[in-house]
Amino acid sequence: MSGSVPRTNGVKVNGVKINGMPKALRWSLYGVGAGLWLSGCVWLVLHLFFETPTQFGVQPHPWESPLLLVHGVLAVPALYLLGWITSRHVIDGWRMARRRLSGGLVSGVLVFLALSGFALFFFTGDAVRAAVGLLHEVIGVACLVPALAHWQTRAAPIPENGARARDRSAQVAGDATLPVVK
Asked: Does residue 11 sit within a domain?
């Protein structure tokens, strides 16, 4: 394994972890993300398949309202975590030219879900609310795919030759390097 870069959570250069996410932050992100995704998916299943017809119209499932409350409450720490991660992990990863496609996709999806969720809270027009709601539901269910792709993607090892990531334009694509950290 000579010449390879040891890896844990993040990239190691000369024994120093670069762009790693602290364990507490990572597990908070997993917990809040799983809670948001599960509460949204369960609400969607109940909303689409378990409404009860009554003499006064369609009656929503009794768990829909509490699930939306849980979903909304979990959105608050999710937005906090999104800001925290963007301020460090995303910016550092972008500067190092690491996992830009999957990371950019995950970031864009999360920003869209945050904005559309906020819009659903305030929009009252039926047509606009229905369109935004449908997009939020479809992208919300599908958001697991880019998140798992980003998590599972292994970036190419970083050579320890002292070249800087900002000099990437002069290098062959996929051959980004970092400065030697002492």
From this structure: no
Which residues on adjacent β-strands are paired with residue 13? 16
The answer to whether residue 47 is domain-embedded is yes
**What is the tally of structural domains in the chain?**
2
Domain carrying residue 182? 96-182
Q: Look at residue 15 and tell me if it is in a domain.
A: no
Element (H, E) at 74: helix 64-85
120-167 pLDDT, tens per residue?
989 888 999 999 999 999 999 999 999 998 888 765 555 555 444 444
Q: Helix, strand, coil: what percent of the chain each, to 5?
A: 65, 10, 30
- How crowded is residue 36: how many other Cβ atoms within 10 Å of its Cβ? 23
Supply the pTM of this predicted model: 0.74
Helices and strands in the chain, H and E counts: 6, 5
